[in-house]
Amino acid sequence: MGARFPLMACASPIFQLAIVLMKSLFGLFPYNPNMIGLESLADPTDTWEIIDTIGKGTYGKVYKVSNKKDGSLAAVKILDPVSDVDEEIEAEYNILQSLPNHPNVVRFYGMYYKADQYVGGQLWLVLELCNGGSVTDLVKSILKCGQRLDEAIISYILYGALLGLQHLHNNRIIHRDVKGNNILLTTEGGVKLVDFGVSAQLTSARLRRNTSVGTPFWMAPEVIACEQQYDYSYDVRCDVWSLGITAIELADGDPPLSSMHPVKALFKIPRRYC
């Protein structure tokens, strides 16, 4: 096993997770500022207790929490103060609460509101704990050890992400920000799509979108084109492009054009690939 899987030489938890992944191989809604009724949300401290800080997200810190009733663990994004709630937070909340559960999409445990007369209150978004970190963390750690991510692991990660995307697309949702940082791992080898802040729902009357969102290096040419020409549009296939760029990221450690300024990349991608 050691000869076929040189990562065994690195004994850090991230490499142990890579081994688990190898073993696993075999074994949106329109925006409405009144959507979230804070007064109807339960107090999180009645159910959840903060254990540790996991990291910092786009809108605030992310914590590991424990359920006071059964001891189960979860992750919580805390938005503080709640006055910072914007369209992306509401979009993620509404998609998560309506989307049926799927093994390759992060599970949603609920939205809570912790009132505070001094700081204006906190909004808690409680999600499944994916304590294996992102696949970007995985590949970066392996590269630091002088190795590259095994192709079988890359295949396994992409397969899980594709199943998650299929679930989203079947429910007429475009993720619009597929990248390594938004694909998380569990310590059991699970692959989970996360972060639906810029996702969009496709209605029967509107099967294409024409707003340019996402992270530049992973964005499909047709999505970038919508920023430059308003008569352009795109559909769920833009997520497939982004996953393809993620495949390159997993193999090389970075997406194509990553050495370039993001704004310059936005002009380069449509010209290079169209």
Verbal overview:
The chain has 2 domains: about 40-125, Phosphorylase Kinase, domain 1 (2-Layer Sandwich); about 135-274, Transferase(Phosphotransferase), domain 1 (Orthogonal Bundle). About 35% of the residues lie in helices and about 20% in strands. The protein has helices at about 15-25, 85-100, 135-145, 150-170, 220-230, 235-250, 260-274, and strands spanning about 50-55, 60-65, 75-80, 110-115, 120-125, 135, 175, 185, 190-195, 200. Helix 4 packs antiparallel against helix 6 (about 235-250) and helix 5 packs across helix 7. The radius of gyration is 19 Å and the shape is globular. The relative contact order is 0.13.
- Ranges where pLDDT stays below 50 over 5 or more residues in a row are 1-9, 26-35, 201-212
Strand content: 15-25%
Question: Can you name the CATH architecture of the largest domain?
Answer: Orthogonal Bundle
Radius of gyration: 19 Å
Number of β-strand runs: 10
What is the CATH domain class of the largest domain?
Mainly Alpha
Classified in CATH, the superfamily of the largest domain is Transferase(Phosphotransferase) domain 1
Number of DSSP helical runs: 7
Task: Strand order, main sheet: write it out.
Answer: 1-2-3-5-4
Brief account:
It is built from seven helices and ten strands. By secondary structure, it is of the alpha+beta class.
Fold topology:
Elements: H1 13-26, E1 48-56, E2 61-67, E3 73-79, H2 87-98, E4 108-114, E5 122-127, E6 133-134, H3 135-144, H4 151-170, E7 173-174, E8 183-185, E9 191-193, E10 200-201, H5 221-228, H6 237-252, H7 262-273
Helix pairs in contact: 1-4, 4-6, 5-7
